[in-house]
Specification:
- The chain is of the alpha/beta class and 352 residues long.
- It has 2 domains: 7-246 and 337-349, TIM Barrel (Alpha-Beta Barrel); 249-336, no CATH class.
- The protein has helices at 30-38, 61-80, 96-105, 121-125, 139-153, 175-179, 186-203, 219-227, 237-240, 249-257, 280-285, 311-320, 343-349, and strands spanning 7-9, 12-14, 18-20, 42-46, 84-88, 110-113, 131-136, 160-163, 169-170, 210-213, 232-235, 263-267, 273-277.
- The two termini are 12 Å apart.
Length: 352
């Protein structure tokens, strides 16, 4: 029988080997992240347009977001007590360096970074104690990151998260790959990544836990990846339908109402495929460009003049419960939700 152990990331020890995945815009903020951390897992705040509730967000989105990072971390700390908190910052975020520094200055425990390769993350974080955790989807990516970090900064990641093709939101796979996930034989890729990380860690006398993400929904899912050599799992979708999640009740109900056939792959206006719940907005988006207002400076891959719709507006509508104009990102297992749960009950399921 596979033994479930605490998750160790440097000197940080999470009693439960579970990281709550970062979900933007506004889905995983201080309420959810703090509640997860308080239960002994790792709570994660998404910085994607985190300042959408600030009064000046439309006029100064970057400034609003940078202020909100500190606010949400402080609020989460009040809930979490001594629990471990992280932030998820997309590499593609405009002013990425400023977001990283804001999180470090606010005393965050770890920074999780994907949607691009976080090549310069060690330089930006500097000498801070903040743990640095890249997200990868293939062995080539982790090889490039580790080789570069070693050569340029004489350090390795403190942990590595593998995000597979069943994850929610923007995905690190092509549309063709997502149309035939079985053909990827992704467990083989997971094993290759784990083997590479373990070899590099052993060669340098350090421990680098590998955490599996994408499609994780139950304890059985966790045990599967622990048997493969992972040290823990990251799970996001299941935490949406919790009382503590920062999303609106209407957003949560959309997950509960969704059927398996409602979970679809969409083409995001920022150039990446993503997984979402089919609704009237998704269908309208196929018909042509939707007019939108001022740019909210979300990610560098977006061209406001050419984008079919504003993804910030669509995701803000989602978190606020304006379903007719909302993009509802979700993982492949969102349809499995049949009611609201408490964070404690979910985390208890994954305890050693």
């Amino acid at each position: 029988m596979t033994e479930v152990k605490p998750l160790k990331i440097g000197e940080l020890v999470a009693k439960v080997p579970l990281i709550q995945g970062g979900m933007g815009v506004g889905i995983s903020l201080s309420s959810l992240a703090g509640a997860v951390a308080a239960e002994g897992a790792v709570g994660v705040i998404s910085t994607a347009q985190i300042g959408y509730r600030e009064a000046d967000f439309d006029e100064d989105p970057i400034g609003a977001n940078l202020r909100a990072i500190g606010k949400e971390i402080r609020r989460a700390r009040e809930i979490a007590g001594g629990g471990i908190l992280g932030v998820n910052i997309m590499v593609a975020t405009r002013k990425y360096e400023d977001y990283v520094r804001a999180a470090v200055d606010a005393g965050i425990d770890l920074i999780i970074s994907g949607a691009g390769l976080p090549m310069e993350l060690p330089r930006i974080a500097g000498a801070a104690k903040t743990k640095l955790v890249p997200i990868v989807s293939g062995v080539k990516s982790v090889q490039v990151i580790m080789r570069y970090w070693l050569k340029k900064y004489d350090r390795l990641p403190d942990a590595v998260i593998i995000e597979g093709p069943l994850a929610g939101g923007h995905l690190g796979f092509s549309r063709e790959q997502l149309d035939n996930i079985e053909a990827l034989r992704y467990d083989e890729e997971v094993r290759a990544i784990i083997e590479h990380v373990e070899a590099a860690a052993a060669a340098h006398g350090v421990g680098i836990p590998v955490i599996m993400a994408g499609g994780v929904y139950t304890r059985e899912d966790m045990l599967h990846y622990l048997e493969m050599g992972a040290s823990g799992v990251q799970m996001a979708t299941r935490f949406v339908t919790t009382y503590e999640c920062d999303a609106s009740d209407t957003y949560k109900q959309a997950y509960i109402d969704a059927k398996k056939e409602d979970i679809v792959i969409v083409q995001s206006p920022v150039g990446m495929p993503g997984r979402a719940i089919r609704n009237s907005f998704v269908e309208r988006a196929k018909e042509g460009r939707m007019p939108h207002g001022r740019c909210h400076l979300c990610v560098s891959t977006c061209d406001p003049a050419a984008t079919p719709y504003c993804i910030t507006d669509a995701l803000v509508n989602a978190v606020r419960g304006n379903m007719d104009d909302a993009l509802l990102f979700c993982g492949a297992n969102a349809w499995r939700a049949d009611g609201l749960e408490h964070v404690k009950d979910i985390v208890d399921e994954f305890r050693p």
